[in-house]
Amino acid sequence: MPTLSRSDIQIIERYWIQFDEYKKKLKYREWELLNEHNIDGGRLNNISNPRT
Q1: φ and ψ at residue 42, rounded to 5 degrees
Q2: Is 8 exposed, middle or buried (0-12, 13-18, 19+ CB in 10 A)?
Q3: How far is CA 25 from CA 13, 28, 48, in A?
Q4: Distance between CA atoms of residues 21 and 48, nearest Å
Q5: 18 vs 22, 23, 26, 29, 34, CA distance in Å?
């Protein structure tokens, strides 16, 4: 069985500490994509979006 390196453990710890914040961001992004007033289905990309 492979073991985790010190850097792997630090990454997992950081992720676990910020887990609630990541969940909030995911919920907000889900709302952004499903919002019926949001015609483009996400964030605007002004560079490649000819409608703006």
Answers
A1: 170, -160
A2: exposed
A3: 18, 5, 25
A4: 30
A5: 6, 9, 12, 17, 24
Q: Which two tokens stand for residue 33?
A: 């994509």
DSSP string, 1-52: -PPPPHHHHHHHHHHHHTHHHHHHHHHHHHHHHH-TT-TTSS---TTT-TT-
> CA–CA separation, 19 vs 13, rounded Å?
10
Question: Under a CB-based contact definition with an 8 Å cutoff, are residues 52 and 44 in contact?
Answer: yes
pLDDT in tens, 1-52: 789 999 999 999 999 999 999 999 999 999 888 886 655 555 555 565 555 5
